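agent: user wants the structure for Protein phosphatase from Glycomyces lechevalierae. delegating to structure tool.
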Amino acid sequence: MSLHLRYAAISDRGVVRQGNQDSVFAGPHFIAVADGMGGMAAGDLASAIVINTVARLDVPPPADSVVDELADAVADANRAIRRQVADDPQKEGMGTTLTALWFDGEWFNLVHIGDSRAYRLREGGFEQITVDDTYVQMLVDEGRITAEEAERHPQRSLLLRALGAAEVEPAFQTIKGVPGDRLVLCSDGLSGPVSDADIARTLQNAATPQEAAETLVQQALDAGAPDNVTVLVADVVTEDPGEQRQFIGGAAADARLAESDTAVLRAVKEAEHEGEAEGDAESEAQPKARKHGRVWRTILATFIVLALVAGGGVWWARTQYFIGVSEAGNISLFRGLPFEVAGYRLAWLDIESDRPAADAVDSVESDLESGITVDGPSAAEDEFSALVDPDAGNESLDPLCATAAGETEAVPAAAKDCRDD
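agent: tool returned. relaying tokens verbatim.
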């Protein structure tokens, strides 16, 4: 018996964000959600590239080599992002999650990287069918914190894997569809502010996918929606729902990114050509190399954290900032992560102030030692005034004025101004 999908999707920029970096696609055979990241580094462009690339899979999957076809589409998408970075180095750091399902009428072929989630409601039972590629999930898996503690962890949004890195290895699953299943794909704009219990309750009570999607998005908005909110709900049904239009939303539907002469489709087309050329070379020289390579990489999955530190982890780490204590004992701004990943310290001194850590107020001493995350140099300036004791010495020093030790990378304008004074 061939099954069908009845679907609905909504993407909202949320309450706080000025733009939408999420993208979503829904069709009779293929559904996907991507959550872009990178801020000024064009997270919206990254998610739009990926969705416009993988949307070509909205056709009945082949009888065999489905995983290979899915992997090739994701590789094309990643290649297109990397091409954008090569053409414009200012976009270094752009990336995106991806969670997608390719349906053949009986089986779902899932690909996942990042923290956009897939949930399933089946006969009253509710479960998350993806595993977040996040630092806190790694801590949960290692038994170092509980799932409840992960929800409150200050680094809960820190990704270990995402598309846009030089090397990526998504997770693949094959899941059997059952009539009555209700599936949800969503960005963390939903799973962050709305609990799993509330998501499950909404899915159980909603009569249609459209009602479920609308209710879930509204719940995220009511909770403050600090991030973009994207929700896709798909029901597995036995009756053919008739013709359903493809849905594309969020950044992927932005008119500025959807025209035929834009960076998105140019990058997608070029990446596909590159992928075809590589595929031809492989088929002539080593027809089984790709398959064997994938098997080998799967075997190496047990060492994935070390691989991330060497590749994608470093890429993502360099887009993060925190305030900590330098080797000289001064309050300083760092790029990277204020903790170790697999025994590696991914942190680089960005700006060192002349203010000793001893001047910090007592209430933040321990936080300063472990690292206080900030959004960037501007946010660090604002945070600095709350950290230091105004009665301590050096009152005349401007916050976070770069010293010679901290000039290994580009210094923000504010730091340059106080250095020149």
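agent: one observation worth passing along. The first helix runs from residue 43 to 54.
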